Structures are given as C-alpha cells and as structure tokens.
Amino acid sequence: MNPRQLRRAVHLLFLAAFLLFTLFPFFWMVASSLKDQTDLLASPPVWAFTPTFVHYAEIWQDDEVSGAIINSLIVASSTTLLAVLLGTPAAYSLARFQFRGKKDLWFWFISNRMISPIVLALPVYLLAQRAGLLDTHLVLILIYLSFCLPIVVWICTDQFRSIPGDIEQAARLDNANHWDIFWRIYLPLGLPGIAVSAIFSFIFSWNELLYALVLTRSDARTAPVIATSYMSGYELPWGKIMATGTVIVLPVTFFALLVSRHMVRGLTMGASK
Amino acid sequence: MASLTIDPPPRRRPVCLSHGRWTPFLFLAPAVLTLFAIGIYPTLFAVVTSLRHYNLTRTHDGFPFVGLHNYIAVLADHTFRETLARTALFYVTVMPVELALGVTIALALHRPGWTLMRAVVRVSLVVPLATTYAVVGLIGRLIFNRDFGVANQFANWFGMPGLDWLGDPRGAFAAIAVMDIWQWTPFCALIFLAGLSMVPNEVEEAARLETSSPLALLRHVQLPFLLPGLTAVLILRSADILKLFDMVFTMTRGGPGAATDLVSIYIQRVGFRVFDMGTASAQAILLLVLTIVLSRLFISAFYREID
User: Fold this and answer.
1) Class assignment of domain B32-302?
2) CB B188 within 8 A of CB B276
3) Does B243 sit within 8 Å of A116, measured CB to CB?
4) Assigned CATH for A34-39+49-268
5) Which of A95, A96, A101, A130 has most Cβ atoms within 10 angstroms of its Cβ?
6) What residues contact B145, with CB distance under 8 A and at least 6 apart?
7) What pLDDT does B294 receive?
C-alpha cells in the first residue's frame, strides 16, 4: 500500500469512527426504547434482542405523556408564530433604515443569545406568581420569546438585506408605502429566511427545560419536564424514559436536518456565515 | 507621462430610502416592547429582589430592603466561588477536546475524496446539536449506569475495570464532560468547516501543488481563515457553559456531593429549592454582568461593520 492509499484509508477510517461516535447515543436511546425490561437491565448490556414496542404503547396510553407533548406543541408553535409576527417588521426596519441607536439595539438583541435562563427564571417566577400565570402556556410562550425573537430578528434581517433595493425603488415610484413594501415585497421574497428562523424558534422552544421546570407544575408541563420527572424513585422505567426521549427528539431532528445548512448561523447569531 | 490613476470602484451603499422620522420605530416597536416587557422589566425586578431579604419560606416578616447585603454574602460565599471555579474547570476540560476534534473533523470533511461518506457525516453533525439537552442527560444516565451501562462494557472490552461513574465525583464530572463533548464538537466542526470553505480555491490548489504536507497547508494557508471561528467558539461556548443546566440537571443534579455543581445548577437550587430569592437574584445578577462582558467581547469581535 503506497502512502497515498494509506492516507485515503486513514481518512475513511476517521470519518467512519466519528460517524459512529456521533450517532451512537442516538442509536442507543432508540435501541433501549425497544428492549423489554429484562434486556434493559442485563449486565453487561445486550446488543442483539427482540424489539418490542411495549414502551411506546405504554406512553401512548399515558395521558401525562400525551398531554405534555400537546403542551409542548402548543407552546412551541405559538412562540414561533408570535416571534415571526413581531420579529419580521423589526428585521425590515433594521435591514432598510438608518437611525440612531441601531448599534445598541443590535447589542441588546445579540446579548439575549448569551444570557443564562436562570437570570430571567427567578424574577419571572415571582412576577408570574403574583399575576397568577404560573403553570400556564402563556407564561412559557412569553418567556420563550426572549430567545426566539432575537433569532428571528437576526436571521430575517440578514435575509432582507440580500433583497435587491431596485425592486423596492420601483415600488416607491408606484407610491407604495413602507407597509406595502414590507408586506408585498419583503415577506414573500424573504420567505426562505423566515422559514429557517421559524424552524430554529420551534427547535429551541421545544427543547427548553429550565423555564418549563420552574414555571409549570401540572397543567402546562412540557415534554422535557415529563421525561425528567421519571428520574426519581428506585427502579427507573428505562424503557419508558427512552421511548419518551425518542418521541421528543425525533421531530426536532427532522427539523434540524431540514435546516442543516443554516445550523451554524442559527447557533451563532450569524457570527460565521 | 500622465500617471494613470484608477478610481476605486464606488462602494455600494446600502439602500436607504427616505422615510418619516418615526417609520423605523413603528416597525421596531412590537419586538422592542415585547423584549422590554419579558427581558428588561424582569431583570430590573431581579435587581430589586437582590437588594431585599426575600425568602419565600419565611414570608410573614415581609421582604425588607437590606442594601448590598446579599451581594456581600454571595461574594463571601465559598460554595458560590467553588461553583464558578468548577464551571471554569469544566470549560478548560471540554474546550481543548472539542476544538481539537472539531478542527480534525472539519479538515477531514474539507479534504477531497469519499464524497458520499463526507456528505453523510456532515448531515449527521446536526443530530447532536438538535437533540433536546434534557434528553442528552437522560441518555448519559443510561450509558454511564454502573450496572447495565454501555460505558462500562466498553471499558471492559479494553481491559479496564467498570466504574460507578455517576456515583463517583471524578467519574460524574468526566461523564458530563463526555456528553458535552458529544453534543458540542459538531458545533466547533461546523464553524471551522465554514472557515475552511472561505479559503480561495486557487490559493488552496496552488498550495497543494507546493506541498504535500497537510500540516504545512494548515499552518500557512488555512489557519488565518480558522481564527475568527476560533474566537467565536471560545466566547459562545463560555456563555453556553455558564448557562449549562438541562443536561447536567437530568444527569446528575449537581451530584454526587457537589462534584458537578455548575453555577446555573447552584443558582437554581438556591432559588427554587431553598427559595432564597434574594441571594439567588444577587448571584444571577453577577452572572448577568459576566455574560454582558462576554457579549461585548463577542460583538466587538464580530459585528464591527454593522451599518
């Protein structure tokens, strides 16, 4: 084997090893969700087993789990809808107007990406308690906007900037006002960016745990909170836990694959394009 | 001979339309007002709370103002300083691995050959990034289980004895580090890959003709394009680790003892287990100050030319 072939082999081997590393925890979760209790508690763990869907049947019949998934759906889609409604006009303004204080506004939007949720969770808990909003969808939707809105504003501003100004100038000649231009030109032409930002907003709201953990108790508990709630007691229902985990992770994985080309942009607020 | 001067091409100015004085603000108002109501107002409320004696389990004597007492107590609190030090230790444990692995993967993905395999790996990178952080913690708990965890099986294959990972202080710290490396190495890899793709093709091809050593290529041609990404990763990951909660909470709840008690976990416990909201708010405000410094750094590094 000459050095070039050797290098090619090492290249392939490395790629394959990393692929295994990346997919293993995911694979292990799905595999464990299909094992029966005996196989789950086998020591050392078994790799060949007869798959069973009993844990999926179990969570299907468990109102707590289905309720939590419905809560997650309600919260994540309402947050996304609101973030797009409120964020796109702001993005239009940032993309097309010059005004004082624009830089400070940017700074503020971007710092929202970095702030620890615990900073807001404490006061929001106290405020929601006073307002009687604890354990409601509304409080989660509002607080999730604190990280979804900046993402939508950032990605859409970027997208709107790439729309050529000529189209807009032509529209101005036809006496269109800014609202018309935003509504008839920017929204339709910026649709790809809006879709990407909406998907990010959905993924982040769907995955969130800390706020949901402290702000909900029973009625509005989301799926990640339920998944965590099994973790007490002596004999853990691992099959049920992993089945719930799989059900939670599958939709976001699908969405993430849809926006895989934009993943870095969404996670860095555009620092590297 | 008249010298030939070439005017620089006119810089294309960003389109800027005439507009009424208030138009930009009308478009901004909904987002700004919302963020104000859900971001700034609660933060101010937290500042006020941090100046009070505010324990939810002892409400009968009200919540008297105590000035900076909570801050003084927090700064003198060994446990708080230890959690900050532990968070820093976690950062310096995972970052070198994530960076080294990330660069290697980015280079392997950038290198020509095995097109289909590279495409598959590239797509698979987003799987860890999108996996619900809380579920990552649950998977970690299963993998690192003492009796039926697959981590011990791997250890046995390599002739090492099994370990009660999550019951052992060092083992638990290592276990959360492994899960963090699993989840965030792809992030580093994707950022570095974006950097590598910025190297002009002709430059890279010329360099490949000059040298066959990938290391020389990396050092002299690709490195300058990797540095901005490196800065971004270092700053963003430090902010992410300061707010790291979900994965660690589901995996170890900060234990055993205080072995994985990172700063966000600790503040959550003070606020929502001990219900000492005054102290927790003071801690959170200090964390916020730290984060704002980091954001400033991040923005001055990346958003210099915002028009």
Assistant:
1) mainly alpha
2) no
3) yes
4) 1.10.3720.10
5) A96
6) B152, B165, B166
7) 85
